[in-house]
Hints:
- The chain is α+β, with helices and mostly antiparallel strands.
- It has a domain at 4-181: Glutamine Phosphoribosylpyrophosphate, subunit 1, domain 1 (4-Layer Sandwich), CATH 3.60.20.
- It is built from six helices and twelve strands.
- The strands form three sheets. The chain has a five-stranded antiparallel β-sheet. It has a four-stranded antiparallel β-sheet with strand order 5-6-7-8, covered by helices on one side. The protein has a three-stranded antiparallel β-sheet with strand order 4-3-12, with no helix packed on it.
- Strand 5 and strand 6 form a beta hairpin.
- Helix 1 (49-59) runs antiparallel to helix 2, helix 2 (65-77) packs antiparallel against helix 6 (244-259) and helix 3 crosses helix 4.
Amino acid sequence: MTTVFGIASQFLAVDSRWTYKGQTKPVDEHPTRKMVQFGNEIAFFAGDELPIVVEQASFLELVDDDIVLELMAHLSDSGEVMETLTVEESNGQIISGYPNYYPRLIETDSNLLFLGSGGIHACDFFYYARKKGKLSDLKCNALGAVRYASIKDDATGGRTSCQVWTPNHSCERFLAKNELSLYDINDYNSYIRIKVQNAYNLINTSGISNMSKSRPAATLPLKSDFSSAPRDVRGESTLRQVSLSDAVSRLAARKARRSKS
């Protein structure tokens, strides 16, 4: 699964790997991103692709709220999973989300945090490298940590993106780079709209532009083809399951804070 890890207000790093559900072969160049920006907010994601795409469409204000909530209701019924974390672009402070905190530092003032199945491994590397004063042979402990996570977790890998707010030797490879400037925003927004429309068309014969007031019965379950979240032998994930109530809460909180800006 995804590895998202870092320290709030210092840096956050994320890998690029996705995996076809039911298969082990990874896809490291998949177009769906795990980190997007809107205004002064940056959101990070882990989990199944469809809820991530729908949440990004809401975060980026690309589709109507009714469409987002209807899709999230279906994704909840299908048992899809997703975790998300939103921080301020200007300083990296957490705005919303429920990250995991590294247990070895839970009694200290550190806020080393993570999402995804590889996150704990990345934190292990970063914690011990810092404790011993070591620097990865990649000349960046953020990169070294994600590489270590990819060794421990088959669902972590590909390209590492990192957003840095407090430059230091642990992230020196990223000091002069704004990772979010490396993709075309308009092209990506169009891609997300199309993905959401295709998902909506699966559950509504009328299409996304003419949404019915009443939800017709879906003929097919709405499930992701891709995931960044591995399942156990029973097909279960350790990630938070999608729920309509969570989607409503995130949407309401986002609207409230953006109305003040």
